[in-house]
Amino acid sequence: MTSPAFFTFDNSYARDLAGFYVRWQPTPAPRPALICLNRPLAEELGADPAALAGPDGLAVLAGNTVPCGAEPLAQAYAGHQFGGFSPQLGDGRALLLGEVIDRHGRRRDIAFKGSGRTPFSRNGDGMCALGPALREYLIGEAMSALGIPTTRALAVVASGGVVRRERPLPGAVLTRVAASHVRVGTFEYFAAHHGPEAVKRLADYVIARHYPELAGHPAPYLALLEGAVERQAHLVARWLGVGFIHGVMNTDNMTLSGETIDYGPCAFMEAYDPAAVFSSIDHHGRYAYGNQPAIAQWNLARLAETLLPLIDADSDRAVEQASAAVSAFSERFEAHHLKIMRAKLGLDDTGRPEDDRALAEDFLALLHARQRDFTNAFRALHDLAVGVAETERHLHDADDAAFAAWHERWRQRQPRRGSELLAAMARANPWVIPRNHRVEEALAAAVESGDLGPFERLLDVLQRPFTTRIEDAAYTEPAPAEVTAAYRTFCGT
């Protein structure tokens, strides 16, 4: 059953990549109820929020009716999961409705998660529980407000059904918006199953969609790899700048668009620790906070392997060129990370890079040794720079000689910080992040008691992460150490 047009669809993936997906229909929700609607995002997409919130819109967002112009399909992809290759994964509980050109001229995917089984579901039920759907909504909006490229949630609808996990849970359908859902794992699937010609079709599509500046490039596939390296280096540097830990950096969770995708076992670090990991399935710390750059580079090497036949007919030359492109990740990441750390420390770019890098690393070492909260320490350093000392307790204890020595180096490096540098420092150091215990409290209230108040209050705070408001101070406090030590996140959506 189709509905009136809520979106103006233009479905290039369905049109241009026949054979890269299976056409499919969502499973209707038995008793749908709208939980939350991202009205500003709906407007960005050219939709009427009031219509989406009405009965016909609810039917669309629940998967009960297909909007006019949509072409629902499940995408095929593979992936390296914790280092081991799975030759077929695909959209097991996701469904791409179609694409729209938003009000800014950007092509955006609109997709469901939790709308039922697809041909790629393997042994899964294709459903999503309410808690993980709300979690993805919350974290995606927080990341967007922090200025980090990310997928975002348009809506969460309670399905009215029950999802069987460790215990029965209320089901939900999440509507997700992305620049696209093409992943490194998409390339891996077609390289493994269909060979270079299929990879070429996919690469040409990705270049046209995400790297149009490469049109007419004499070596487009090498340039595509180099572009992916640059985008991922920038993205992971941004993650580290706010203490974000992805938790499941498999190749099927790395997009060619350079957006963050999949907010299942993710978390935000509190006390600074490069080994911090909260994913319940990451038993050996493969995706720990400090390992994320190396894992991103490893994933890019897997992308490079799929592109080798396109880069050069001579396999030795192809390997040499691709290896150079992937090896450049380290330099590009370090450049982006240094820029971020300079902003966080309130430094201009006139200093020697190696000296500024050492200054940043030594500050982080102080935080690690003293188990200081990453976010609060940097914000306190900003407060110190503007002459406010009330939050200095987040930096050091009294008579801390090591911090005093570092502080003097920092002061000497930039004895005067003008308004422009201070503004950049404020923009680089959020006042509030999604504290893990606050997220869990909000989700528990919504799922266990049907109380969306804590979720809505937390969402409101997270959408203004750089704004200091005394009434929101409780959201800046870390969880007790014993809570953080036992905290684990799970693959939910």
Q: In which range does the helix fraction lie?
A: 40-55%
Strand proportion, as a percent range, falls in 5-15%
List the total number of helices: 17
Give the CA-based shape. Answer: globular
* Structural class by helix and strand composition: alpha+beta
Q: What's the arrangement of secondary structure elements?
A:
Elements: E1 2-3, H1 12-16, E2 21-23, E3 33-37, H2 39-44, H3 49-53, H4 55-61, E4 66-67, E5 73-75, E6 79-81, E7 84-86, E8 94-101, E9 107-113, E10 128-129, H5 130-145, E11 152-164, E12 168-178, H6 184-193, H7 196-210, H8 220-242, E13 244-245, E14 267-268, H9 292-311, H10 315-345, H11 353-370, H12 374-385, H13 401-413, H14 419-428, H15 436-449, H16 453-462, H17 481-485
Parallel strand pairs: 1-4
Antiparallel strand pairs: 2-5, 3-11, 6-7, 8-9, 9-12, 10-12, 11-12, 13-14
Helix pairs in contact: 5-15, 5-16, 6-7, 6-9, 7-9, 8-9, 8-10, 9-10, 10-11, 10-14, 11-13, 15-16
